[in-house]
C-alpha cells in the first residue's frame, strides 16, 4: 500500500519536529559538556529536554568531539530520527554550566519550544557574566604563587611566580581566542611562564628557583578534566573517560616539554632548591587562596568563590594533618577530598542557594592538592634518563617512576573520594525551580 501525499507530508512534518527536538537537546548537552560537566550530567540534561518536548530518548552517545542523539515520537514507536552535533572547546565555566542546568530543568517542564531553547542557548553563550580577562589573569597568577607556597617556595619567589602566572594566563587567553592549537598553546605558555618565574626568582635571590618554575605553570595542569576522566569511567562512560585521560596525558607531555626547555637553559645559571616546610595555618591560608584563584579562572560567581576558598582551606588542613600523621600523600589527599565533598554537600542545607555545579565546587576546592609539579618532575626525570646513553642513573629512574605513581594514586584517590561521597550523600545535579 502506497502512502498518500498528505500522509507523506505528515510524516515529513513529524520528522522535522523531531529534528528540532533533537537539535535543541544537543545544543543544551554541548553547552554542558563545553562548560565542564561530566558525562552523566550531560546525558541527564539531554534526556530532560527531550522528555519535556514530548519525545522519547532512544540512545545518547557522548564523545569527546561530538554528541549523537536518537529520539522518537512519544506516540509512534516507528518514527525516529538521529542527529549529531560537534562539541566545541572544552573548558570550565561554572556560571554557564549552572545556566545550562537551569535551562534543562525549565525545558523538562514543557514550557519551552525547541526554537526557544536553541535561541536561549545562543543567548546564554553571549550574555552569561564573565570575569574580565585581566582579573582572571591576576587571580590565576595569585593561585600559582599560592601553589608555590604549598610546595615549599620561599617568600622571595612569591611575586615572581605571580607575575609569571599572570603572563602565562594572558598568553593563553589570547591564544584560545584566536583558536590556536591547544597543545602548541600549552608548550608556549609553559616555556614562557617557567622561564619568567625561574629567572626572576634567581635574580631576586630566591633559594627555590626550580620549584618557582614548576609553580608558574600550574595554571596549565588539567585538574577538572583529570577528575572528570576518572569519574566518567567509574560511572559507565569509559570511551569519553579514556579520551579525556589521554588528553590530560598529552597536555602534561607538552607542558613538560616547555618547562624542560626553560629548565635546561636556566639550570646553566646554577639554580638549586632548598624547599621550606610550612605549618598548617600557612597551608590553610594559601590553599584557600589557590582554590579561590582557580574559582575565578573557572568563572565562579564572587559569592561562590568565597565558598571555594573555604573548601580549599579544609582540603589543605586535612591533608596537612594526614601528612603529619604519616598517612602518605595519596591517602591524605583522598581523606581531604572526602572532607571537602562532604562540606560541599552540606551547603545544600543552607537557607540560601549555593550554585555548586554538582561536583565542580568540590573539585575546585581539591585542585590545590593536584600534584602537578610531581607529574612534571616525573616526566622530566624520565626524559633525562632516556637521554643517557652509557651510564644510566638508576636512582633517577626510580625517583621519576615513584613521582609518576604518586601522581596517579593521588589523583585517583581524590576522584574516587569525590565520587563515593556523592553516591553516599546524594544531592540533585540540577536545580529545583
TrEMBL record:
GO terms for molecular function: transmembrane transporter activity. It comes from Cohaesibacter marisflavi. It is found in: Cell membrane. Pfam families: ThrE (PF06738), ThrE_2 (PF12821). It is a multi-pass membrane protein. InterPro entries: ThrE-like_N, ThrE_2, ThrE_Dicarb/AminoAcid_Exp. Residues 285-422 form the Threonine/Serine exporter ThrE domain. The keyword Disulfide bond does not apply. This is Uncharacterized membrane protein YjjP, DUF1212 family. Residues 25-262 form the Threonine/serine exporter-like N-terminal domain. GO terms for biological process: succinate transport. One of its GO terms (cellular component) is plasma membrane. Keywords: Cell membrane, Membrane, Transmembrane, Transmembrane helix. The chain crosses the membrane at residues 133-151, 157-175, 182-204, 245-266, 278-298, 334-354, 360-382, 394-421. Belongs to the ThrE exporter (TC 2.A.79) family.
